[in-house]
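Forum > Structural Biology > Help requests

Title: Can anyone predict the 3D structure of Diacylglycerol O-acyltransferase?

Hi all, first post here. I have the sequence for Diacylglycerol O-acyltransferase but no way to get a structure on my laptop. I'd be grateful if someone could post the structure tokens.
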Amino acid sequence: MTADLLAPLDLAFWNIESARHPMHLGALGVFSCHSPTAGAHAADLLAARAAAVPGLRMRIRDVWLPDVRFPRDLAATRLPLALGGAAREPAPDFDPLDHVRLHAPTADFQAVAGRLMERPLERGRPPWEAHVLPGESGTSFAVLFKFHHALADGLRALTLAAAVMDPMDMPEPRPRPQEPARGFLPDVRKLPGLLRGTLADVSRALDIGASVALSTLGVRSSSALTSEPSGTRRTAGVAIDLDEVHRVRKSAGGTVNDVLIAVVAGALRRWLDERGDGSAGVAPRALIPVSNRRSRTAHPQGNRLSGYLIRLPVDDPDPLTRLRTVRTAMDRNKDAGPNRGAGAVALLADHVPALGHRLGGPLVSQAARLWFDILVTSVPLPSLGLKLGGNPLTEVYPLAPLARGQSLAVAISTYRGRVHYGLVADGRAVPDLDRLARAVSDEVETLLAACRV
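Reply #1:
Sure, ran it for you. Structure tokens for Diacylglycerol O-acyltransferase below:
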């Protein structure tokens, strides 16, 4: 394995992290079992299999001079941007036992997961962990995976986690074409195209910047969604039937994702009203990440993300009108494409030199609250059933990192006919996260009832 310079967005995630704002994402998987020792066996399997997964052996180190090869999407003409960056490289002393931990039996997987999500990953070794949580009843156990966002986005984290599950009969992947060697200077025959690309990048950056500025105007969020950081974390999860989501979609229109986002808006309304904060006039900006990952021939590591920005119609009392508002906003974003608009601000990382990421990371982290109020992200999962040690995975709750100044993040996955909402909150700002989880279930029932009228 060779070393790779971090792409700009990976470097941004690496540098905006702080003790109270760890930049790892997670997934809490629940497995059914028939033995109280199944959790311990699962921990042994994870440690043994992790040793054979190249992506789990990679650490991140600072690189002041670019003595490693560039990612495929980082042109050689941008050599100066890499000065003072960081790189992924194989850890010479990798020991999977340092990353897989077996905990005492518990009756509440989510409570333990919340405490574990508070802890930053160690930066001197491969930035990931797997925590095995045996259930007190002996009929289930959970595994909490944590991956630093600089190591993987949601799709890449899914690939790494699946690599330590029980093997499945899958078709062989197509071989990747060999990348030609690159020098420090560009091929002069490509200069006209490079110039056009540079001008297009500048135009896109100006467009995104203007959209971000406009998105801050006339915004009313809720104090429940923003807070001073306490460094504490709570997690909660709720599962709903995918068939119910499809019934709403077929009756009211839109996509499955539109319905799932509208459920978040309705749940926030119900939750804010119940806790006495009030939803009147509240229309928080939701960042909806969009993957720009290409086909399997693309470079597999790091983040390939853009995003859409929409106002959640929390203040609208009608559930079907909320869904129509979300649908209209998402259609507008899709028409513009994921590379323009305020939601695509992550792409601006490409225009910042590595040294700028290193020096400006703390400032950028504080600017997140000016850009969006809540993260709502979707992580696709394979339809095939996953197992660990022969024990089937029955539930999986994705967990997103919290940006500085924000109290809540929502991640959604669909797995084997069920939709799983994973909620992460600042533990001090949102002590009633379970109430919001119940509001998600109640909102689905409200939409179903509205569709039957």
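The chain has a mean pLDDT of 82. The chain has ten helices and 15 strands.
Shout if anything looks off.
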